[in-house]
Amino acid sequence: MSYPGYPPQSGGYPGSGYPPQQGGYPPQAGGFPPAAGGYPPAGGYPPQGGGYPPQAGGYPPAAGGYPPAAGGYPPAAGGYPPAAGGYPQAGGYPAPGGGFPPQAGGYPGQPGPGGFPSVPPAGGGWGAAPGGYGPPGGAQPGYPGGPAPGQPMPNYPGAPATGPSMPGYGGGVPSNPQAPQVPRGYRGSIKDFPGADPLKDVEVLRKAMKGFGTDENAIIELLGNRTIKQRVPLVAAYKTTYGKDLVKDLKSELTGDFEDLVIAMLKTPSQFDASELRAAIKGAGTDEACLIEILSSRSNAEILEINRVYKSEYGKTLEDAISSDTSGHFRRLLVSLCQGNRDEREAVDISLAKQDAQKLHAAGENKVGTDESQFNAILCARSKPHLRAVFHEYQQMTGREIEKSICREMSGNLESGMVAVVKCIKNTPAYFAERLQKSMKGAGTKDRTLIRIMVSRSEVDMLDIRQEYLKAYGKSLYTTISGDTSGDYKKLLLKLCGGND
């Protein structure tokens, strides 16, 4: 087994220039390859009668090798392997009290709280610490994989956590260590406008609305080239400068979908999400797809902020609003999601992913009836990286995608809600690409959905959504928006789209 961060050595431990001696220590399997030229080197230091150890001064280490302890090699009584603690050298591999050489199976580090293997990755991933494999803080892991003095024997996989909450899910580090994802940089379509000044910007907006008629192009050019953090301060700057409400003035000048889009762009993300959730709940009928879209795609911190804003703006909690407007298992799904309490750890333990896949199979396809609560517990509480592993294991185990099983086991809002959660977790940009396609497909456009996604994702993953849209539907999102909308509304939407593919 090899570990990222270790150049694999043919036969095991990198050569340090200590080959076994005739009559000395028998070589271990996969032991030290002899240094070029053998030992002793030509003209070098022959062993004394009896062979080993050499006289004081010892054997000079090869470049990059192990400097001997003062007084030569081997160390003090206790011989080879060295006494507990081994050779403490910068960048080296100290041997613990468990001895040397490594046991079969490779080079794990010390056991950690979640089991085996377990040294938390140094910054940047496994083995990224200067000098090789080591945890942050300078403490070197033991070599070989036995426990360090005073540590319990590692338990594989991570033992369940104590307490009635959940199994010991996500504990320790991944049991299938992978290279960290390469950061892809900013994936939004709107970028900060250099040198933007709110006081100058509101002057432009005031001129665009003052007098006879409205200069819509000036509004489009300004708002379409400002990020959220540059647009939101315009409301306060406008009132400070002119003593008037910018939103009210814009509403008096604009109409229809263009007005809705402009007003949406002047709200903070949490204000906008809260207002969309409010609109989805109140009145005749409920927009269940909107509720699922927002609650399954936002982070814990975003959901908690939405809850705060919702209570502040509308006088009741989001949970109460959802509970009074929905019912049954679908209500439970939404209430679970609106807690903003999903595990957000990146570590994935494949053994636990397999356990969860088996639980989902036992709760659905493998029993008479369906245990919806088990689906709810796993889909709403587990981390997104973990759930992606669960979905993969489920398909490997059953030969069927999890969405297909949900459709066979559930119906109505619960079915569509669960499937939406799965799709959003599997591939968020592809989920939004599908939502955009549905909003523009067929007779009429679901403009509220189109506006919400274009505004809320323009600084998150719009470039990825465009790629997924092109891949899924064979034409660019830009082209579809151009063909399905018109006028100023189309111009501003295309600004948020950011370009053609």
TrEMBL record:
Top-level taxon of origin: Eukaryota
Family assignment from sequence similarity: Belongs to the annexin family.
GO biological process: cytokinetic process; phagocytosis
Keywords of the record: Annexin, Calcium, Calcium/phospholipid-binding, Repeat
Biased composition regions of type Gly residues, renumbered to the chain: 94-115, 122-143
One GO CC term on file: nucleus
Region Disordered, residue ranges: 1-70, 94-194
SUPFAM superfamilies linked to this entry: Annexin
Biased composition (Low complexity): 1-39, 53-70
Domains as described in the record: A pair of annexin repeats may form one binding site for calcium and phospholipid.
Name of this protein: Annexin
InterPro entries registered for this protein in UniProt: Annexin, Annexin_repeat, Annexin_repeat_CS, Annexin_sf
GO terms of molecular function: calcium ion binding; calcium-dependent phospholipid binding; phosphatidylserine binding
PANTHER family in the cross-refs: ANNEXIN
Pfam family, one: Annexin
UniProt entry tagged with the keyword Repeat: yes
Native source organism of the sequence: Nothobranchius furzeri (Turquoise killifish)
Compositional bias segments (type: Pro residues): 144-157
Record has Ribonucleoprotein as a keyword: no
